[in-house]
Fold:
Amino acid sequence: MLAYSYTQYGSSDVIEQVTLPQPTPKPNEVLIRIYATTVSAGDWRARSLTMPKGLGLMGRLVFGITGPRKPILGTEFSGVIEAIGSEVTSYQTGDAVIGFPGAAFGAHAEFITMPEDGKLTPKPDNISFEHAAAIPFGATTAYDFLVNKAKLQQGETVLINGASGSVGSACVQIAKHLGAHVTGVCSGGNAEMVRGLGANHVLDYRKQDVVETGVQYDMVVDTVGTLPWAQAKHAIRDGGKMVLIAGITSDMFVGGLKARLAGKKMVGGVASEHRDIMEAVVKLAAQGVLQPVIDRSYAFEDMKAAHVHVDTGRKKGNVVVSFSEQQAVSNIA
Ligand SMILES: NC(=O)c1ccc[n+]([C@@H]2O[C@H](COP(=O)([O-])OP(=O)(O)OC[C@H]3O[C@@H](n4cnc5c(N)ncnc54)[C@H](OP(=O)(O)O)[C@@H]3O)[C@@H](O)[C@H]2O)c1
Structure:
């Protein structure tokens, strides 16, 4: 099978197309032919080893000390079951699925195997393969932080920094679905798109200091890492919360304490990749509550170009890489 592999950290130049043996499913696994995947912020971090200042060593501990531990990137995908292991009961050959290997990676390939009870769920018929592949990474992060960790409530006001990214665009839609009053922060060019996702207000971070408007929110969510606690605290009401999805190193370690001392709270950490969360967001997508934003779509052959675009840090929502059906079939023949 074709795949993209990397053996050293660096720019998009470190990835190369390789031909590998097609994996064989174990008794409890399914083999999936991937139709679409994405290049996510997770792929960018793992490939470039870009970490918040001072966390370079932690990055190596996570992704591999001397070089990448997982040679094939790709955190999410959609595809069709090609074969099933002898003990598999919940899937059949031909079933369309959405998968979220997440930190296990491996979706930048023609095929992947996953346990049938892994982070895999049937693809609803009303969602295209392209859109389906772009659901898990951003939406599970948004859902886990807003719903499970921060417990955003109906009627609360929330400022979402980075509202046009993969995580941010999902945060806007999930916060609106929960009944919150949403202010999105992005550059002017993305304002219309963020409004279209449901934001009540949009602030352009290039034209104004978003925390010095005099407005205080119940919750401030940073999905970019450009709103440190020292600034964000001014925009959070007493008892309100800072949700740190991306942030500076000192906030990750002592932000919680600083927030408590100021009579506020900070919610941070790593998003859970639990299957239940993926099922919850896929259900929201099937209901039309959540629509993954797709910035650009690339053919599998153009994987490198997709990485180059993601490296700009300016993608709108998600960058999809897909095999066309015809391409997928001819690659198998
Ligand atoms: N804690 C966790 O478990 C967890 C899980 C998943 C992701 N993350 C982290 O979350 C971050 C975001 O991920 P993502 O997938 O959403 O990234 P992304 O899609 O690549 O984010 C790109 C967006 O960031 C916006 N942006 C860039 N600079 C900005 C600024 N100064 N102010 C406001 N917006 C700005 C851009 O908007 P404009 O073009 O309008 O500037 C662009 O739309 C990453 O650092 C990722 O590692 C953390």
User: Anything to note?
Assistant: The chain has a mean pLDDT of 96. The chain has eleven helices and 15 strands. The first helix runs from residue 41 to 48.
